[in-house]
Specification:
The protein is an alpha+beta fold. Helix content is 35%, strand content 17%. The chain binds flavin mononucleotide.
């Protein structure tokens, strides 16, 4: 079996795919260090959002999503990534050491990699077409392969989840420091990070619509003809059986696996983490929605209406900024 890092063109191509991963407020809180035989993923603590993400859970999820994107990129390029997660307890920001080994890409590797540049966080209303049970099953399988589980909500579980989303929105609205941080990271026009106005829809006034995170300066129109139509999005909760940092990193990998599976199926998706960022609403999800397991991510998944405009890709920081030589301190 061939070992050692592939050529730098292949490594850069895999990192370029990895950084297309979703991240909280598009904060991209990661750094990549290229060694002789191993590629390392580090969390960049300077990019944690203290008001939105006091526990650093969103940061770990974002880095986990980038790790899974990297694995998918390598797999499509002909390299299977052996991953050692949290390899050094003395260095908590060192999230993964990745050793690629030659392999033959499978059809699914190519399909998932092809979904990376097509995936978008779509915060608009979806259509009235229900998501087929078979598609939910495929997303649940993708989550299970990453050591987590995915639960579609209906009945009381969905009621409690919708209630928790609204309650988190109300609590955040009363927190001036949170609102300041959100405004600072959104409403952007030409910035390599943060959430651009072009990706934030005007508020959805339809009765019963779930409150969306109120990013600054929205300027994306809702799709014509969707007002008053039923939005048949499914709300999926991704959970783990423990709540340590490894579980949160794995939940980020699973989030990526579910989102890329959804994209490959033609589905639209949007992460919703407000109710997980506050202890009370997270506890509601734990006890009333997923039977005492630990909720890590909520995903809204559905079909975009046929007349929905394609969404622009959100920007990313330059590769030279996120790929640093081994030995340079994190955050430089
Ligand atoms: C951990 C995490 C939490 C997120 N929370 C939300 C959220 O609550 N609301 C939302 O609209 N988007 C949320 N997102 C989506 C990000 O804002 C989005 O990934 C980022 O702006 C980049 O855009 P893209 O996904 O279209 O590439 C979240 C993403 C991650 C990884």
């Amino acid at each position: 079996m061939e070992r050692g890092l592939p050529d730098s063109f292949t490594v850069d191509a895999a990192i370029a795919l990895a950084v297309r991963a979703p991240s909280v407020h598009n904060s991209q809180p990661w750094q990549w260090r290229v060694g002789e035989r191993t590629l390392h993923l580090y969390a960049d603590p300077a990019r944690r959002l203290p008001e939105t993400d006091p526990d650093g859970r969103d940061l770990l999820l974002s880095c986990g999503a980038a790790l899974h994107h990297l694995r998918v990129g390598f797999a499509a390029l002909g390299w299977r990534a052996a991953v050692h997660r949290l390899p050094n307890p003395a260095e908590p920001n060192h999230l993964a050491a990745i050793e690629p080994h030659r392999h033959e890409p499978a059809k699914r590797d190519i399909e998932l990699a092809a979904a990376i540049p097509r995936r978008r966080t779509d915060r608009r209303r979806y259509s009235s077409w229900p998501v087929p049970a078979g598609d939910i099953g495929l997303m649940a399988k993708a989550a299970a392969e990453e050591g987590t589980f995915l639960q579609a909500t209906d009945g009381y579980a969905r009621y409690h989840l919708a209630h928790a989303i609204a309650e988190a929105d109300r609590q955040h609205a009363r927190n001036p420091a949170y609102r300041l941080e959100l405004a600072a990271w959104s409403g952007r026009e030409a910035s390599p990070d943060g959430v651009p106005s072009a990706n934030v829809p005007l508020p959805d006034d339809t009765p019963g619509a779930l409150p969306a995170r109120p990013f600054a300066a929205p300027r994306l129109a809702q799709t014509p003809g969707t007002a008053g139509e039923d939005d048949e999005a499914v709300l999926l909760v991704l959970g783990t059986t423990s709540d340590d940092r490894l579980s949160q990193l794995r939940a980020g990998e699973a989030t990526s696996a579910v989102l890329l599976t959804a994209t490959a199926l033609g589905l639209s998706s949007c992460p919703l983490t407000e109710p997980l960022e506050l202890p009370g609403t997270r506890e509601t999800l734990r006890t009333k929605v997923i039977d005492g397991a630990y909720p890590q991510m909520v995903l809204r998944v559905g079909w975009a209406p046929v007349n929905a405009e394609p969404l622009p890709a959100t920007p990313r920081r330059a590769l030279d900024e996120v790929r640093v030589p081994l030995g340079q301190p994190v955050g430089r």
